[in-house]
């Protein structure tokens, strides 16, 4: 019968694999301070239990990554999202044309822009539309397409075709995760393709992601953003994940949170 320590270690292996994707035997051995053979026994047991699927040299969690709905995510990291949104709003000048992605942090940015003047905002997200629908000083363009109910945003060929006729001073993207060596993460390849296309149409690109998303790889669909781009996160983001992104040439802004 496995000891309590073995059970706890195996539970933690599943958690790590679920949140970060692949984990190598060598990395797990170093992390837990046990031998590689012990880790291999753990992985064999987890595979037998149906909790993991083995790969060469490591393991991947079988546990599905359910995509949280927009409603479920609304209350997460509220203060961080508001601080990020306020910083982003301060970058936008009068007369600019900007593009807003979907997501709750981008919605917080749209809320900050309700009293802007001489601003044109295009968006693929219903939340941003709701925030700006009665904003007198903002001209709003909706890039319609196929609606993803879980994210309340548009994707697909109609959205992509609309982008071909527009360009933007700034783009503000949401994401489910951002990691060095990968880019930005989403649950759906249609989303990652769209984000890459949006980034090509904007002079400046910002990714708005609170600290829990930095260094995280919850899904296996990734967007590689062209050119220079800026990650805007909060001051509690993992320093090693931030340093790895900066080493790749990503500009990272960390905003403080209210005391």
UniProtKB/TrEMBL annotation:
<dbReference type="Pfam" id="PF08220">
    <property type="entry name" value="HTH_DeoR"/>
</dbReference>
<dbReference type="InterPro" id="IPR001034">
    <property type="entry name" value="DeoR_HTH"/>
</dbReference>
<dbReference type="Pfam" id="PF00455">
    <property type="entry name" value="DeoRC"/>
</dbReference>
<dbReference type="InterPro" id="IPR036388">
    <property type="entry name" value="WH-like_DNA-bd_sf"/>
</dbReference>
<dbReference type="InterPro" id="IPR050313">
    <property type="entry name" value="Carb_Metab_HTH_regulators"/>
</dbReference>
<keyword id="KW-0238">DNA-binding</keyword>
<dbReference type="InterPro" id="IPR014036">
    <property type="entry name" value="DeoR-like_C"/>
</dbReference>
<dbReference type="InterPro" id="IPR036390">
    <property type="entry name" value="WH_DNA-bd_sf"/>
</dbReference>
<dbReference type="InterPro" id="IPR037171">
    <property type="entry name" value="NagB/RpiA_transferase-like"/>
</dbReference>
<keyword id="KW-0804">Transcription</keyword>
<dbReference type="GO" id="GO:0003677">
    <property type="term" value="F:DNA binding"/>
</dbReference>
<feature type="domain" description="HTH deoR-type">
    <location>
        <begin position="6"/>
        <end position="61"/>
    </location>
</feature>
<protein>
    <submittedName>
        <fullName>DeoR/GlpR family DNA-binding transcription regulator</fullName>
    </submittedName>
</protein>
<keyword id="KW-0805">Transcription regulation</keyword>
């Amino acid at each position: 019968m496995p000891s309590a320590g073995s059970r706890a270690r195996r539970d933690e292996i599943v958690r790590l694999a679920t949140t970060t994707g692949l984990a190598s035997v060598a990395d797990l051995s170093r992390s837990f301070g046990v031998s590689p053979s012990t880790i291999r026994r753990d992985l064999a047991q987890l595979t037998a239990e149906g909790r993991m699927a083995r790969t060469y040299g490591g393991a991947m969690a079988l546990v599905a990554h359910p995509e949280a709905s927009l409603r479920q995510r609304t209350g997460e990291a509220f203060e961080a999202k508001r601080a990020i949104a306020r910083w982003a709003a301060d970058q936008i000048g009068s007369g600019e044309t900007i593009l807003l992605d979907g997501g709750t942090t981008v919605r917080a940015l749209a809320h900050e822009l309700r009293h802007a003047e001489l601003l044109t905002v295009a968006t693929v997200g219903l939340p941003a539309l709701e925030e700006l629908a009665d904003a007198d000083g903002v001209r709003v363009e909706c890039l319609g397409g196929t609606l993803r109910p879980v994210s309340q945003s548009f994707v697909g060929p109609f959205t992509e075709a609309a982008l071909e006729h527009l360009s933007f001073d700034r783009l503000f993207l949401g994401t489910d995760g951002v990691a060095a060596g990968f880019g930005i993460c989403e649950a759906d390849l249609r989303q990652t393709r769209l984000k890459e296309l949006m980034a090509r149409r904007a002079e400046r690109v910002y990714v708005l992601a609170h600290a829990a998303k930095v260094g995280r790889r919850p899904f296996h669909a990734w967007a590689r953003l062209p050119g220079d781009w800026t990650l805007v996160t909060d001051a509690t983001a993992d320093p090693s994940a931030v340093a790895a992104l900066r080493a790749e040439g990503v500009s990272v802004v960390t905003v403080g949170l209210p005391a």
